[in-house]
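Quick illustration for those who missed Monday's session on complexes.
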Amino acid sequence: MSNLTNIISKKPNKGLKGVITIPPDKSISHRSLIFGALSRGKIKITNFSQGADCHATLKIIKQLGCEVNFLNERTLELIAPKKLSAPANALDCGNSGTSMRLLSGLLAAQDFKCTLIGDESLSKRPMKRVIEPLNLMGAKIKSNNYKAPLEIDGTSLTPIEYFSPIASAQVKSCILLAGMNTHGATTVWENSLSRNHSEKMLKYLEAQIQTGHSDKGFYTNIQKSELTPKDIEIAGDISSAAFFMVMAATVPNSEIIIKNVGLNNTRTGIIDVFDKMNVDYKILDKKIISNEEVGDIKVSYTPDIKACEISGDIIPRLIDELPIIAVLAARAKGKTVIKDAQDLRNKESDRISALAQGLKKIGVNIEEKPDGFIIFGDNKEFEGNCEVETYFDHRLAMSFFCAGLLSKNPVNIKDFGWVNTSFPEFLDLFNKISQ
Ligand code: S3P
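Prediction with shikimate-3-phosphate bound:
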């Protein structure tokens, strides 16, 4: 499906039922390649994302000298060189902020020059958040007023202690990648803990890393580290599961089981919201794979969803799920307030204004705030009968699709194909559970 494909979403005739396996986690997939590229050995990565973002990182690590062989669609063998080498061409991150921000940390500490570029949406996103700490370490980076393209002249860096002004896993991981290639100890502090997949994978690959919490906040400390090459199995993506979790909770007569969902507690804010909103769900069969917790989630239609407030430390634990949580809130009885989420304006789109604009057209009573939304929900169907824009943003496309299922009249979603960024299997899985 091309990114410019439009589709129509409409109320299903019956409830959604069945068992689905959600695609691999995007954040962990990127990290498996990036840390794998530094492992100086051969590793097998199982359940790797088929999304365009992770394939952008894959192409880049190949340009840096890694060999990648696919054993099947989602299993690959990565052979990392003893030392990464200068790429012949620019490194294209496409739509992927994670690729650009993490790789800038890795590349700033190499001994060659390279340029990171991105698509129209990524070229508008802020890179100061990574350039600033890297500059403090002595990095040489030229940018277009702190935006891509980033021309990186790799050099040896000095360690830092950095208090991150935002709880961002991309910033934290960028600094850790620079720090692990630098003599001495680098420490990153955060006020609220952002997703910790880098720390967990680095521990799994036996890096010299410590994490903890004190009255100053959450810290991660890393020393110059050699990684042990080990096979990595990737958990399913709770951010992708979230769309199906909300569909099952809101479409009458639904009950679905989603298998193999990553349950790392820095990502499970949506489950806490389900508790607050009284959504009927169960977690089954928990286990650990490659140092990450996974389990199955069963969600059933819930007629009496409650409104709630979502703010503070929970925000980094559900930042990517806020668009679909807004749809859930529109079906809850009462006023849901979402605050402290101003960084949503810096995602693939300005998710606060783009989401409010689309949901208003669909018939949701939503008020845009500088750092979030207020949603006045009730149990009624939305009006629908409109066309909504997706602004290069996969999560908006899927959230509007879910809102269309809850509307009296169809919703036409423009450029729905942006789902390919993270979740090319979305429509196939939907067709599997809709009867
Ligand atoms: C990600 C971190 C988050 C998230 C993004 C993926 C990661 O971004 O929104 O989709 O893999 O590190 P921030 O670090 O900007 O919060």
